Input
Amino acid sequence: MPSLPFIQAPKQHAPRKVGNTNSGILEIPVYGGLTVGEAATINELLAAEQSAFVRGAQIADAIAKEEGITLLEAFNLIENAISGVALEEAAEHLRLKHADRISDVARVYAASGQRHQDASVTAILRSRLSLSDWSLADTHTLDGALFADIWQLVQDEQDAEGRTSEPPSEADLKKQPPEAGSPSKRTGRKSPSSSSTDTPANSAETDSTPNCAL
Output
């Protein structure tokens, strides 16, 4: 591969050993971030999967229309409930009222988080160990400790990039397709003057699986 004429060469990182004597030990290069190709592979492997963010937005839309609150308030309620954030009395009432719906989103989040881990570990092994034919099915055969170490490497690489994701806005949520069978108009009820769920929510496409406290 041709080299670029850097004025300052990229920082060199020591490779990391992953796994243990039971799982086998691999040495994987560390770059200080994911490459463009690795990110593209992850997206490709996840392309056909249901988006957890879309599902969360759909359920939030249904709750917002029924309760006369904003879409963002409903979405924050769902994410806070799934993450185990302590809720104020009004929000806790809504959480209990819509517990089944929120549990549905929690299951989608959990499955999405696992798929993202699988895709990320697969991308790393394909790219950094030159295993171009390595598949998701191959990743599923890995020893648990080895998988966990490689996933930790992925997270550390992402953290090293220093990128932060912005919480979704009301406009972002409205772009998502509505849930099948949901009403097209709001109830017309007034929104509360204050929201007990105004804690900024992380993007639904998180790398970690939130703990559901329903």
In short: The radius of gyration is 21 Å. Residues 16-174 form one domain. The chain has eight helices and two strands.
